[in-house]
Amino acid sequence: MTRKVGAGLVAAIATVATVVVVSGPQLLQGQATETYNYGRVVPYTCLLVAQSTTQQCKALTAGLKTYVTDGLVSNNVGTAQTLKLVTGTGTNCGTGTADLTHAVQFAAAVGNVNLGSFHTPLQPAAAGLAVCVTPSAATSYSATISGFVAP
Question: What are the φ and ψ backbone dihedral angles of 126, each rounded to 5 degrees?
């Protein structure tokens, strides 16, 4: 059985379908805060330029975890060293330090390593920990780290 539908009804259905599609994920992506594990999320990005000692990238937030979703580390001079992300408390993660990533190896050359976008965010062992970058030598490095703070 075939039914004829008026042009007005077809236009109304198309409009509703468009609204449903547009109001879905795009609204979530445009928000300054989102949710993760049913909690409110606050995104962050930090940039460390020409550092040579352990530096805090994201300060601790009491009662919340600092997740890492993306990272890029760079060796700025032709000296071999390793760089890794760590968590901890105190000045520049000086207390209770724990590895968040393995040590990224740099030969005696300038270079970058894209840690990538993690499908599952790197998660600290507990709430209330800062995220820092630690070099193995007092040699210039840079880093860009992104993520979010959430319960």
Answer: -150, 170
Q: For the chain, give the mean pLDDT.
A: 81
Burial string for 53-75 (b: 16+ CB within 10 Å, else e) reads ebbbbbebbeebbbbbbbbebbb
CA distance 125 to 128: 10
- The one-character DSSP state at 93 is G
> Distance between CA 149 and CA 151 in Å, rounded?
7
For the stretch 107-126, pLDDT in tens is 999 999 999 888 889 999 99
Q: Across the chain, which distance is largest between two alpha carbons, in Å? A: 80
Which backbone phi and psi does 68 adopt, to 5 degrees? Answer: -115, 130
Name all domains of the chain by residue range, CATH numbers in brackets: 33-150 (2.60.120)
Tokens of 26: 């795009």
Phi, psi of 63 (to 5 degrees): 80, 0
pTM of the model: 0.74
